[in-house]
Amino acid sequence: MYLIFLNVLKNNIALINQNFSIRESIRKNKGKWFNLKYGKLNLLNALFLPWNNSVGLYQQHLPTSLLKTTYEEVWESEPEVLKMTCMNRIRDFKLDVNQWLFKEWQVMKGNFEPRSIHFGKYIMVSESEDLSKVRNLFSQNKVKVFCLNDHITESTENVMQEAISIFEDAFPKKSSFEL
Questions:
Q1: For 87, what's the count of Cα atoms within 13 Å in the CB-facing half-sphere?
Q2: Which of 17, 80, 102, 124 is the most exposed place for a label (fewest CB within 10 A)?
């Protein structure tokens, strides 16, 4: 499944490269592309410097702020691709794009603010042992957001019950947004 998903990312970056030069974006926004908040990931940006085309942008798998104007601009520039993607009930990994296209578009335009690479945490849960990472996050209270992604290889029911228990312990009261 992961290899198939890579095609969507390839489709995103193909559209980005049709519309932007990474070298030009970096030149116009040096302080955004190279920032202390990125730590050693600044080296990745340095690797992009010799080329006009991007091979891909770093994805933290965390929330991203997007502008309405970015959506409008991408829809205006690439209506056929977006319409085809919207028409598919199931992703067509050979043709479709995803929401990261809008983020990448915004980055290439320089419409972003540098954010610490420690802003959040991505946790892949394959088995119940992985849930200890979630417990640690709640007990340490060190990150603002996290993404819990499931790729369960053992009994789904056991892992889900344990995850529910962790969240009920961490959030005993319902949010005002819940019914």
A1: 7
A2: 80
Structure token pair of residue 46: 């340095």
How far out from the chain centre does Cα 99 lie? 8
pTM: 0.84
Strands 145-150 and 120-125: parallel
The predicted-structure confidence for 135-171, as pLDDT tens digits, reads as follows 888 888 777 888 988 877 767 788 888 889 998 998 8
DSSP character string of 5-62 = HHHHHHHHHHHHHHH--HHHHHHHTHHHHS-GGGGGGHHHHHHHTT-SS-S-----SS
Candidates 77, 124, 85, 144; CA nearest to 104 is 77
In DSSP notation, 119-171 reads: SEEEEEESSGGGHHHHHHHHHHT--SEEEEEE---S-HHHHHHHHHHHHHHH-
CA dist 164 and 142 (Å) reads 21
